[in-house]
Amino acid sequence: MRAYWNGQQLISRNGLIISLPATLRQQLPSIPIEGELWLGRGQFGALQSLIQQQNPSAEQWQALQFMVFDLPEAAGSYRQRYQRLQQLIEGKPFLQLPTYQPYSNQLALERQLAELSDNGGEGLMLRDPDALYLATRSKALIKYKSYQDGEAEVVAYSQGQGKYQNMVGALVVKDAQGRLFKLGSGLTEQQRATPPAIGSMVHYRYNGLTSKGKPRFARFVRQYQAL
Residue 163 — φ and ψ, nearest 5°? Predict the structure, then answer.
């Protein structure tokens, strides 16, 4: 779960102020850092429950780590900021720093991604070590994910909201395993206005499964044409 330490408070991406036990707060620096709260793979639901508690005990938080990614207000290249982060986390077990390594070629990168995916990871973050800090998306920091494909039957539609009012918000689909889920991401405005017909088959992509066993980050790719 992404989080931002502003030097005084730890705040979630949605603006929730996260109450930390004193043993963890005292390990955080007086300067802003951004990163991700980490409880372990497949533990997102448990993490959500934990941070919503306003008076957590140190025992409840002992397995939690704050993976620090960057220093938003620091000058210099990422290589220099990374060295500063190494100094900041020294002797502070709550703070952890991801390991970055260069890859000599595309094949080595793909092998690392495949190994990570086999162990339940989502992907890799590719960084330009000489880039200055940018608060917006850029080519200096790229999310590199693997994904899986699937086929599903359109069984219903959900109503669109906002700019998609009076159009389809998402396709409700059913796959071969009988799982029902929605495909909203990936649909164009034209497809939302004239969506694939009920009973048609569509191709989708996803990144692993949720704790409930449904495709995670499922998005529409295309409709299969009848022969």
Answer: -70, -15
Q: What is the mean pLDDT of the chain?
A: 88
Beta-strand pair 180-183/168-175: antiparallel
CA distance linking residue 152 with residue 202, whole number of Å: 6
Query: In the β-sheet with 219-223, what is the strand arrangement from edge to edge?
Result: 180-183, 168-175, 148-159, 201-206, 219-223
Q: What is the CA radius of gyration of the chain?
A: 21
Amino acid letter, residue 124: L
Is the per-residue pLDDT at 84 higher than 60? yes
The Cα–Cα gap between 23 and 31 comes to: 18
Q: Helix, strand or coil for residue 44?
A: helix
What is the distance in angstroms between the CA of the first residue and the CA of the last residue of the chain? 45
* Cα 160 from Cα 167, distance rounded (Å): 5
Q: How far apart are the C-alpha atoms of 108 and 91, rounded to whole Å?
A: 33
Task: Say whether 163 sits in a helix, a strand or coil.
Answer: helix
Give the model's confidence band at 227: pLDDT under 50 very low, under 70 low, under 90 confident, else very high: very low
179, two tokens: 């799982």
Question: What's this model's pTM, rounded to 2 decimal places?
Answer: 0.66
State both tokens at 98.
Answer: 């991801």
Please, where are the H alpha helices in 55-206?
78-89, 106-118, 189-193
| CA–CA distance, 205 with 4 (Å, rounded to integer) | 30
Residue 209, strand partner residues: 215
Specify the pLDDT at position 58.
Answer: 63
